[in-house]
């Protein structure tokens, strides 16, 4: 027994020694190649042992629902700790080379570096192991694929988000009308309720109708079940399982190459619920008669996909990828916006005044074009997208040796070397709250900043940028704008319960973010005295 223990201990010690030796070799090779490429050294943080201290801090912050506010504080602490003598205090530590779970990654919030990764040197990067990390739930789709597979997925999706498709508001008006009725009913007698739940039901209904040609009508009946291949699943069951799975997928991305450790029977069970729900729409589409004639229902994504392939697995995977974007991101933004408007009466009153002046008290004049003309409405939405980028963290993996334009030298103005296989992690959430880019009031909800004439490009990317920019951007903005206008028309106030502050609002983090403890409010109808 003792000999076995000694062998195990000896093996572990040997493994650790090999890792340390590998670490030194990697550092030597990095410095040698960086010189060859004419790059200056970035700040390198060897977070021993093997990046685990930062990983544990990250997990703790995530469990406390403040991971990205922790990241802002962490970057500021690094700046204070490592700023070299003579370097201006205005120069922040925006790019570092950081050890995380056995890997040496580059972490950046510098707009120029983000531009390089997403656009200028787009071909130098892929999604890396994100495919494997997200595979159990999402499979092969637009958010997991690179190269030709991604190009094919994007080409198939583009017609769905044409202006003609996005500007058709009839079904949206019906669903939002149902939402308004629910808000009125739930608010009777000054009752408080979680509006975020119903925003997710709204976007579930609009997304399924827009993408599948049929709504699940979860606002009417969230317990209504659809029949998948192996089980019945309700919209509420799907929503719960989907949220659980997204949290697990997020954790898998945080674990880097150790992502495979995040797995369980419960995880697979929830994945099965999600797959069965979407398979209902898949098999219904496959049962439709095949025809080359133009569909009388207009362009419906799943119907067009069924013309290209009869493989239900391929169709399901593509649909799940799109449902992720169509449901969660828009619902989260509406939830954050409602949370803020309930607490900031100045903005709420100014927005409501602008809406009533532009559209009156009914939805009759609402259109894709008129929503774009309402200036203050768009400023409010832009400001909320700035403060709460719904996809707050992302990364790309270098597929060749390449270079980032900034991050080297004491003032971070020199290029830095990015070896093949290195993950470049960037946080839009942090970039969009940086005081150096947005002013001393960067943490404040101030829509008026969008009327000040300052141009923002790569420091404002709520829908990503470059060739992979979100195809559904206009669809999301239209739904957010339409819903916000109808709330302003039907209600004269939003009363909140809980903290009066929106600063460092707790956020649940999966692949997207949401309000951690819900949006507990009561709406006051315009006809209430």
TrEMBL record:
Annotated GO CC locations: membrane
Localization per record: Membrane
Xref: Gene3D superfamilies: Cytochrome P450
Pfam families membership: p450
Residues that hold heme according to the record: 470
Keyword entries, A-Z: Heme, Iron, Membrane, Metal-binding, Monooxygenase, Oxidoreductase, Transmembrane, Transmembrane helix
Entry keyword annotation includes Heme: yes
InterPro entries: Cyt_P450, Cyt_P450_CS, Cyt_P450_E_CYP52_ascomycetes, Cyt_P450_E_CYP52_fungi, Cyt_P450_E_grp-II, Cyt_P450_sf
GO MF entries: heme binding; iron ion binding; oxidoreductase activity, acting on paired donors, with incorporation or reduction of molecular oxygen, reduced flavin or flavoprotein as one donor, and incorporation of one atom of oxygen
Co-factor requirement: heme
Top-rank lineage group of the source organism: Eukaryota
Family in the record: Belongs to the cytochrome P450 family.
PANTHER family: P450, PUTATIVE (EUROFUNG)-RELATED
Name the UniProt record assigns to this protein: C-22 sterol desaturase
């Amino acid at each position: 027994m003792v000999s076995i223990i000694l062998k195990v201990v000896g093996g572990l010690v040997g493994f650790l020694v090999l890792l340390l030796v590998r670490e030194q070799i990697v550092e030597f090779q990095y410095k040698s190649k960086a010189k060859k490429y004419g790059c200056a050294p970035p700040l390198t943080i060897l977070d021993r042992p093997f990046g685990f201290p930062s990983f544990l801090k990250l997990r703790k912050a995530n469990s406390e629902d403040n991971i990205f506010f922790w990241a802002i504080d962490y970057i500021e602490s690094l700046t204070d700790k490592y700023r070299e003598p003579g370097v201006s205090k205005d120069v922040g530590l925006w790019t570092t080379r950081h050890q995380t779970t056995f890997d040496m990654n580059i972490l950046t919030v510098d707009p120029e570096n983000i531009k390089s990764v997403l656009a200028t040197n787009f071909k130098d990067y892929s999604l890396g192991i994100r495919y494997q990390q997200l595979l159990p739930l999402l499979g092969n789709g637009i958010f997991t694929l690179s190269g030709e597979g991604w190009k094919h997925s994007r080409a198939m999706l583009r017609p769905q988000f044409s202006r003609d498709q996005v500007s058709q508001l009839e079904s949206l008006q019906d669903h939002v009308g149902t939402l308004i009725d629910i808000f009125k009913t739930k608010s009777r007698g000054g009752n408080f309720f979680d509006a975020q739940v119903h925003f997710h039901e709204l976007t579930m209904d609009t997304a399924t109708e827009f993408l599948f040609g049929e709504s699940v009508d979860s606002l009417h009946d969230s317990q209504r079940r659809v029949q998948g291949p192996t089980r019945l699943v309700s919209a509420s069951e799907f929503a719960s399982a989907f949220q659980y799975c997204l949290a697990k997928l997020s954790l898998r991305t945080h674990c880097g190459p150790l992502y495979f450790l995040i797995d369980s029977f419960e995880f697979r069970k929830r994945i099965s619920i999600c797959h069965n729900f979407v398979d209902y729409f898949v098999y219904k589409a496959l049962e439709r008669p095949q025809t080359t004639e133009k569909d009388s229902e207009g362009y419906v994504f799943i119907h067009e996909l069924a013309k290209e392939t009869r493989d239900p697995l391929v169709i399901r995977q593509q649909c799940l990828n799109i449902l992720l974007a169509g449901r969660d991101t828009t619902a989260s933004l509406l939830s954050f916006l409602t949370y803020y408007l309930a607490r900031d009466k100045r903005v709420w009153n100014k927005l409501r005044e602008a809406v009533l002046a532009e559209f009156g008290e009914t939805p009759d004049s609402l259109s894709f074009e008129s929503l774009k003309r309402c200036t203050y409405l768009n400023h409010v939405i832009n400001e909320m997208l700035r403060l709460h980028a719904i996809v707050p963290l992302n990364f790309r993996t270098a597929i060749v040796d390449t270079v980032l334009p900034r991050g080297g030298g004491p003032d971070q103005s020199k290029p830095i070397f990015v070896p093949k296989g290195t993950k470049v992690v960037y946080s839009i959430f942090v970039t969009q709250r940086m005081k150096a880019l947005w002013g001393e009031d960067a943490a404040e909800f101030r829509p008026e900043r969008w009327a000040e004439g300052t141009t923002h490009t790569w420091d404002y990317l709520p829908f990503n940028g470059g060739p992979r920019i979100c195809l559904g951007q206009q669809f999301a903005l239209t739904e957010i704008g339409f819903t916000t206008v109808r709330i302003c028309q039907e209600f004269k106030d939003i009363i909140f319960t809980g903290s009066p502050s929106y600063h460092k609002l707790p956020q649940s983090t999966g692949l997207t973010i949401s309000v951690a403890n819900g949006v507990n409010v009561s709406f006051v109808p315009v006809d209430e005295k």
